[in-house]
Amino acid sequence: MSLRPAAAIAAATALSASLALAAPQAASAAPAATASAARAATFIVPTGGATTLAIAPGTAQVLTDNGISVAPVSQAKVTGKGIAFPIQGGLVNATTLAGRITHSGGLMFSAGGKDLTVRDFTINTRKGGLTAYVEEVGKRIRLLDLRLGKAKVDATKKRVKISNVGALLSDKAAAALNDYYSTDLFAGGLKIGTATVKARIKVLRG
What we know:
By secondary structure, this protein is of the alpha+beta class.
C-alpha cells in the first residue's frame, strides 16, 4: 500500500519532465549553455495541487487476501480515483530536470496487530525514485522506483498534469516490509500501480 504513495511520487517525477515544456529555457537549450547562462538557470516550483495514486487491482487483491489493510493519514484523502496526496513544494532545474517534489500526508499499513506509517513523500527526479519517512524506524527510505516511459504529459506555464506513471516497489522497501511483518510476500519490482499528478507551478529565472 505504501505502494500507492510511491506511485504518487513517481508521477511527480514525470512532473519535473513536463516542467521543461513550460519553461522556454528547457533541456533542448542545454548544449548551447554558457557559464553565464548556467548562473541564470530556470527553475520550476510546484506550488499546489495533488498526486492521486491508484493501486494495481492485482496487488490490491493480494494485500487484502493476506490481511494487510491501508488507510490515509494526515492530509491524504481517499477520492473516487484513489488516494490524493497534496503537493507541498519543491524545486526542479528546468534544464537538467534535477530536483525534488514534496508531498504532505501519508499511509498507515496494518497487519497482524502491527502498524507501519510512511509519510512526507519526496520525489527525487535525478535518482528516479520516491522516498518516504517511516515513523516506526525514524528514518527515510527509498520506497518506489519510478517508470516514466509511458507517462503522458499536458503542461502550460501555470499547470501540469502527468498521468500513467508506473511505480514499482524498491528492493530495500520490499526487504523492510518483509522483515517488519515477518513475511515473504513483498518483492522488489512489484507493480504497485499508477499515479496522476495535477500541479500548479511557477517559473523562476536566476
